[in-house]
Specification:
mainly alpha, Growth Hormone, Chain: A, transmembrane, transport, membrane, Sugar_transporter_CS, phosphate transport
């Protein structure tokens, strides 16, 4: 998709695609709230407190919440498979110049005379694509360092993101009722409600702020700013964690760090 965008707004387009994650988080929270409410109303046994254990219907509820996530995944997969490859990939990697010309004519606003000239002489201008396997020495020599740097960066980021997500319910517990006084569906509903509020108040606005500024600030620079703010907030949380928990002030720095 970035290859089809103009250079002035390419960063905004890529960031806009990635911002769909924010709407996905909001949608998943809404789905959780709806299903939990339906089960709580329809299952009298589900209204019992969690302690000492949740009702059997809670197992069916979370499985249905998870199954609904299949719908956007299937739609995304179908859309991607129906989407044509970029002309650049088709010409340079697949070596199919005629198909690249057809796809360029479909999606790009290029003069037909220029495309016809490329079509007539393109086969002679294009060198044959190099052939080497994914596990070859040539591949690792050309792309190994970039691939390793990308994978390690994502791994380190995910360690922070997913570890803080796992402790999300513990962070919110000071604002929730004890499990002795609520049922499983009410607790899940309240957690999803907190997530929906954070999505609307922080995640989605943050994505839109990135979309509006990424081409001006720079893609690398805006990521460095975001990681720096996350590091500062996490460091402050570590230094004063006990005090913030005791005074019920952990929610704002936690949400700022996460979103």
């Amino acid at each position: 998709m970035s290859e089809f965008a103009n250079t002035e707004r390419r960063g905004a387009l890529v960031a806009g695609v990635f911002s769909m994650q924010g709407f996905g988080i909001l949608f998943s929270a809404l789905v959780t709230m709806i299903i939990c409410h339906v089960f709580e109303v329809a299952q009298p046994s589900g209204r019992d407190p969690i302690f000492p254990h949740p009702p059997p219907s809670a197992d069916l509820a979370w499985r249905r919440i998870l199954m609904i996530g299949i719908i956007p995944a299937v739609l995304t997969f179908y859309s991607r498979m129906a989407m044509p490859e970029t002309p650049r990939y088709t010409a340079l990697v697949l070596g199919d110049m005629e198909r690249a010309i057809v796809e360029a004519r479909r999606v790009l606003d290029i003069d037909d005379d220029l495309l016809s000239d490329v079509e007539d002489h393109g086969a002679n201008m294009m060198p044959p694509p190099e052939q080497y396997s994914f596990f070859s020495k040539k591949f690792f020599k050309r792309h190994g360092s970039n691939l390793a740097a990308c994978a390690i960066s994502w791994f380190l980021l995910d360690v922070v993101i997913y570890s803080t997500t796992l402790f999300q319910s513990w962070i919110y517990k000071s604002a929730l009722k004890p499990p002795e006084h609520v049922n499983a569906f009410t607790e899940a509903f309240n957690l999803a409600k907190f997530q929906a509020v954070f999505s609307i108040a922080a995640i989605i606005p943050g994505y839109f702020a990135a979309i509006m500024t990424i081409d001006g600030v720079g893609r690398r620079e805006i990521q460095m700013i975001g990681f720096l703010i996350m590091a500062i907030v996490l460091f402050c949380m570590v230094l004063s964690y006990n005090a913030m928990v005791e005074n019920n002030r952990i929610h704002f720095p936690y949400s700022l760090c996460m979103h």
